[in-house]
Amino acid sequence: MCSVVTWIHFVPDRPEPMRHFDPQSLALFIAVCDQGSIAAAAEQMAIVPSAISKRMTALEDQVGVRLLIRRKRGVVVTPAGEVMLRAARETLSSMERLQAELSEFSHGLQGNLRILASLSAVCQFLPSQISQFMKEHPRVQVNLEEKISALITRGIEEGRADIGLCWENARTHHLHHRHYHTDQLGLVVKPDHPLAERHQLRFEETLAYDHVEILPGSLVSLTLQREATLLGRAIRFRVHVTTFDATFRIVDSGLAVAVVPMDAAGLYAKAMDIRAIPLVDEWATRRFVAFVRDLDALSAPARHLFDYLTESASSSP
Predict the structure, then answer these.
(1) DSSP secondary structure string, 237-278?
(2) pTM above 0.90, yes or no
(3) Structure letter (DSSP) for residue 170
(4) In 3D, which of 244, 225, 236 has the Cα closest to residue 283?
(5) What is the pLDDT of residue 11?
(6) CA distances from residue 283 to 37, 48, 203 in whole angstroms, order as listed
């Protein structure tokens, strides 16, 4: 007697392919993560909070995992949300890059770019360069934001901006970077200050006087504290400010002295009765770098601007 064996092949269920993501939902998701709340994102994006909330719920339903933990005072991004955030930034960046590169064929260079730069770069050489670039490329909009070095490098790493500019002492070695500019730090004082007649100074000589701290937590502030410690001394920060304008006004009042870029001091010295004396310490001559996360992934406008800034620096005296 013959037996018949029937083979049954079980085919495991395959997940349905994920639908395409809506760019607007991705942009809103990025805004919510960056702002830390749906309400703040709604204000930034000019849309009612309920509409954003519905979009976030639909996005979570689409991916099948929780992306945000909603709390009374904002949202917390889940680990899955962090993955989604990185992917969303890369996706929108790729779309913008494609649109910008295709538009060159019909309209010439155009696009929206974002630069993160240190206070020294913003107050010295960068604005005139951006202005000239935008005159040559009127369809390119450049948004400039001043940050401390740590936030600049983080912003470039996370894809929040196209180009970063700051002192090379910041941790930029893992990013594509080029030399941008060089400046010199000096001490600004009142004309009747005991150091006012000096032609140059060592940083150690300034530690007998009260200082202005510019942007607490900035690389310059941390460097001054570190160098004082290496000398076995302490720097006395009597006043803490966030702008050069406030710094020079404090110095002009005689409350304290300040370590600032010599070029910036020269601009304010014309309007205020102050003296600027260069520091001869090796670290006081600073090299600035321009850097990007991935040179090959830059949009055409961003690549043009990156080349323009760094080539301008190499040709400047």
Answers:
(1) EEEEESSHHHHHHHHHHTS-BEEEEHHHHHHHHTTSS-EEEE
(2) no
(3) S
(4) 225
(5) 47
(6) 41, 50, 10
Q: Using DSSP, state whether 74 is helix, strand or coil.
A: strand
Per the DSSP assignment, residues forming a β-bridge with 177 are: 291
- Look up residue 230 and give its two tokens: 């290496």
Q: Give dist(CA 79, CA 61) in Å, integer.
A: 16
CA distance 104 to 126: 25
**Residue 201, amino acid:** L
The torsion region of residue 120 among left (phi > 0), alpha (psi -120 to 50) and beta comes to: alpha
Radius of gyration of the chain (CA): 26
Do 164 and 156 contact (CB within 8 A), yes or no? Answer: yes
Domains in the chain with CATH codes:
23-86 (1.10.10.10), 109-181+287-315 (3.40.190.10), 182-286 (3.40.190.10)
In angstroms, the first-to-last Cα distance of the chain is 100
3-state helix, strand, coil in the chain (%, to 5): 45, 20, 30
C-alpha–C-alpha distance, residues 275 and 265, integer Å: 8
Percent of the chain with pLDDT over 90: 68
pLDDT digits (tens, 9 = 90+) for 103-115: 665 556 678 899 9
C-alpha–C-alpha distance, residues 314 and 121, integer Å: 16
Angle in degrees, CA 254, 259, 260, rounded to 5: 105
How would residue 67 be classed by pLDDT, with cut points 50, 70 and 90? very high
Q: Which two tokens stand for residue 66?
A: 């929780």
Residue 15 has pLDDT above 90, yes or no: no
